[in-house]
Amino acid sequence: MSLLTELKKTTRVVADTGDILSIEKFKPEDATTNPSLIAAAAKMPVYAELVDGALVAAKKQLGASAAPKEIVDHAIDELSVEFGKRILKIVPGRVSTEVDARLSFDEAGTIAKAKKLISMYESAGVGKQRILIKIASTWEGIRAAEKLEAEGIHCNLTLLFGMHQAIACAEAKATLISPFVGRILDFFLKKTGQASYPPAEDPGVVSVTRIYEYFKHFGHQTEVMGASFRNTGEILELAGCDLLTISPKLLDELDSKEGAVPRKLDPEAAKTAKVERITVTEATFRSMHQADEMATFKLQEGIDGFTKSLVELEKQLEERLATLG
């Protein structure tokens, strides 16, 4: 059996891509997108018709007097939802659709954008139970998620690097968190000058393992989905995690190799592990975040990166809009 088939026995595999053709190939349970992935997919010739359709729909809905920026802003939401709809025709589970990264520190703005996206999905006949609204794990983002979850809108808290973020998300009753494995590894490789880490000692793997054990030990219902992998060793070391979201390149590597995949993360073992409870208030969150150099840097870097992708996508759509007349 392939490593991918074996992995699926203990972990729900999610495709980390906006490329619908890749999702069709690997048949994951769920799929996640983000601004970088949507922007990359939007540049592919195969999706040119989809991009044009989003622009035309936005222009029609907003009227001829709408400014190009207003049309493009709405078209990006149309595009995100259209990719989501097409993905949901392939996967049996859920799709994660991300809120504008520029709203990461804006609780009210995040809630408004989330409700708009859910409304657009519902207008297209997609129930909110199949959507995860993806929000950055800032204090404000977590508070927005808490309010959205109370209204039955499920959330995926992303750009998560520290235990303080994870616990705050669990206490807010978020549906799912996406701790970033590979980006944590990137930070420590650069900081230490090491060329690599053995998979079991990979700082990203260690971080997700600690979060998983904490959640299962204290009975938190929030699911853990490891994300942002750099190699298959990281993935296999987290076999047994609730979910893992994996890029097409690494899915292909796992699918092309055969072997056993022993379970590494186990909820029963976590229940008996020695774990200290941490109560995360806003003061605790901000203090722990400030003290965590890696989480502070990587969270802001991630927000900045997704913002850059959105700005590039906006520019691309503005140029495309001008050609549509």
**SSE pattern:** HEHEHHHEHEHEHEHHEHEHHHH
N-to-C CA distance: 53 Å
Strand portion, in percent? 5-15%
What is the total tally of β strands?
8
The percent of residues in helical segments reads: 55-70%
The figure for the number of domains is 1
CATH top level?
Alpha Beta
**Helix and strand composition category:** alpha/beta
CATH topology: TIM Barrel
Would you write up a description of this structure?
- This protein has helices at 3-7, 20-26, 35-42, 48-62, 68-88, 107-123, 139-150, 163-171, 181-192, 203-217, 232-237, 248-256, 267-271, 282-291, 293-324; strands spanning 12-16, 30-32, 95-98, 131-136, 155-160, 176-179, 223-226, 243-246.
- The protein is α/β, with parallel strands linked by helices and 325 residues long.
- Helix 2 (20-26) links the parallel strand 1 (12-16) and strand 2 (30-32).
- The model has no long low-confidence stretch (mean pLDDT 96).
